[in-house]
Specification:
disordered C terminus; about 70% helix; mainly alpha; 26 helices
Length: about 500
């Protein structure tokens, strides 16, 4: 089949101005967002103020809109909003980044009103706002010094009381690109605002739960402290939080990078919040990996290795085991790796061990584990087991057979009629694997003929399933039914 020619600027130029112009007009008639981008590009010939004027009209219209957007129109709204942000960044941002940031902040400030008008369960609209936040950070790098100095006030004016959380996101995007003096002033303003708001809230009569902006403002102060390189302020602000919500791992990482290892060790061992496991989980791989690095930094390699091995035994983390083996002397890693495999095979729960052997990867041991626990696998895990079975079926047909049987049994035992098509495919797989699987199966696992007979005995009335099997048998073969590929030798 002939390859389609790739588009390029040079090839488009060959079409000529008239042809290109007609193509643009035709697409503009079909696509409202594209039409607006074309108008903005034309306005750009008169200068950035003309582009800004067009954008301002669209932003004003967006702010005035009140009607609810049905779910089936949310995609079109997302496309329209993305067209608007693209115009701001590509057309206005290229000519006047300061003006573009002003419009991006106005756009981001519409988020609460827009979310009230649309069902964004798929996150399309949120994605456009995050795109605008990222663009704000990118454009902040191109501001003049006076423009950058004014940015904190503009951000607070546009988003200072928004509760959705985009205020902290915008701060993270722009803070690394602002002058130190501007960051210092911004932090002082936030500190004063927090104190004033806390005083007001303390005097308020208790009327139940209410949202306080001080949490966002405090998070912003930490972002600013990080941008200023003020680690002590970052830590002081974190220490003010309740212990169970402190981000101890981030603080410990910052302290380790600063060479303050003793403090880093204290922070990594605090309870804090555990995004990778239960709150009382001291053996989460993320925390263990960090603590082991800190222990090595203070010179206690023995404790670091002991911690890694304890974590591996508890969690079977492939990453932790790799770190552990990497630190061993030459020739000790092979024996230790074999010991780790034995732990996984003998002591761990089968699901956890299977995931470890897939991650390592040792597909032979994954297959061995599956056969060892042949009656354990739950075909209800349909989002995992088919992928594992497909991965193993060529080299380890018995393990794949066990998983395919578990999947098929689950479908038929639960009478999941909507999944009968999948069940028919699994039975077809079992038939293809039967000869090789039967040749290696232990006695407690039934051969294919016995399994199929028992299946028919247990589910004789599931005609919807057996009809599909009959349809598959009546189709003409599409190729060799052999499990292995057929190699044809040429004549030279």
């Amino acid at each position: 089949m002939a390859r389609k020619p790739a588009l390029s600027i040079d090839k488009l130029k060959d079409l000529g101005v008239a042809k290109l112009g007609q193509l643009v007009l035709d697409e503009a008639e079909r696509n409202a967002g594209f039409r607006r981008q074309v108008k903005a590009a034309l306005a750009g010939k008169s200068g950035p103020e003309a582009i800004a004027k067009l954008i301002d009209r669209r932003l004003s219209g967006l702010k005035r809109a009140k009607s609810f957007i049905d779910w089936d129109k949310a995609h079109a709204l997302g496309d329209d909003l993305r067209s608007l942000t693209d115009t701001i960044t590509s057309e206005l941002g290229a000519a006047a980044p300061g003006l573009a940031i002003d419009r991006l902040l106005r756009f981001i400030a519409t988020h609460e009103q827009v979310f009230e008008r649309v069902d964004d369960s798929l996150g399309r609209i949120q994605g456009v706002y995050y795109q605008a936040i990222t663009a704000t950070g990118d454009l902040a790098q191109r501001l003049t010094a006076p423009e950058a100095d004014q940015l904190p006030e503009k951000i607070m004016s546009a988003l200072g009381e928004s509760t959705h959380g985009y205020l902290t996101d915008v701060t993270e995007a722009v803070a690394p690109h602002l002058p130190q003096d501007s960051l210092t002033r911004w932090d002082a303003d936030l500190k004063g605002a927090i104190t004033e708001r806390q005083t007001e809230e303390a005097a308020r009569e208790s009327d139940g739960w209410f949202y306080s902006m001080t949490s966002q403002w405090s998070a912003m102060r930490q972002t600013i402290a990080l941008a200023r390189g003020d680690l002590d302020l970052l830590i002081a602000l974190e220490a003010k939080k309740k212990p169970h919500v402190q981000d101890t791992l981030t603080i410990a990482t910052q302290l380790l990078e600063a060479g303050r290892t003793s403090e880093a060790l204290d922070w990594v061992r605090k309870p804090g919040r555990r995004p990778f496991g239960p709150a009382d989980d001291d053996l989460s791989p993320a925390r263990v990996s960090l603590e082991a690095r800190i222990l090595e930094a203070v010179g206690d390699e023995t404790a670091a290795q002991a911690l890694r091995w304890r974590c591996f035994e508890a969690r079977l983390s492939a990453d932790i085991l790799r770190d552990y083996l990497r630190k061993l002397p030459d020739f000790e890693d092979i024996e230790t790796e074999e010991r780790a495999h034995a732990v996984a095979l003998e002591k761990a729960t089968p699901e956890v061990a299977l995931q470890f052997f897939l991650d390592w990867p040792r597909h032979d041991l994954a297959a061995k584990l599956i056969v060892m626990h042949a009656k354990h696998w739950d075909g209800g895990d349909w989002h995992i087991l088919p992928k594992v079975a497909a991965l193993l079926e060529h080299d380890y047909p018995l393990a794949a057979t066990i998983l395919y049987r578990a999947l098929l049994d689950s479908i038929l035992d639960r009478a999941r009629s909507k999944a009968y098509g999948h069940g028919a495919n699994y039975l077809e797989k079992l038939t293809l694997l039967a000869e090789e699987a039967d040749s290696t199966r232990p006695g407690e696992i039934a051969d294919h003929a016995s399994y199929l007979a028992e299946l028919k005995k247990r589910h004789p009335r599931k005609s919807g399933f057996w009809t599909r099997i009959g349809e598959k048998k009546s189709r003409p073969p599409e190729g060799s039914t052999s499990h292995h590929p057929v190699w044809i030798r040429g004549d030279g």
